[in-house]
Amino acid sequence: MNNWDASTFEEHLGKRVSWGIVTGRDYSGSAMVTQELCAIVNGKQIKMAAIAEELKKKMGTEEEPFEGEVPVADV
Length: 75
Prior knowledge:
Layout: H1 6-12, H2 30-41, H3 48-59
């Protein structure tokens, strides 16, 4: 019992989740499901489209904005 802590306890209960994906069409309730999951597992929601838009702004310049697809590895 030297190395027993809350994370070890949760792992033994089967509550260990590294990551998950929630997908859905518009107005399907995926945003609500994501919010509830984040609250339950103390998670964080990552919106890939928003991150891609930020990267496009960084990859382009004011005179010539970036218009191609952002590589998934960069996201």
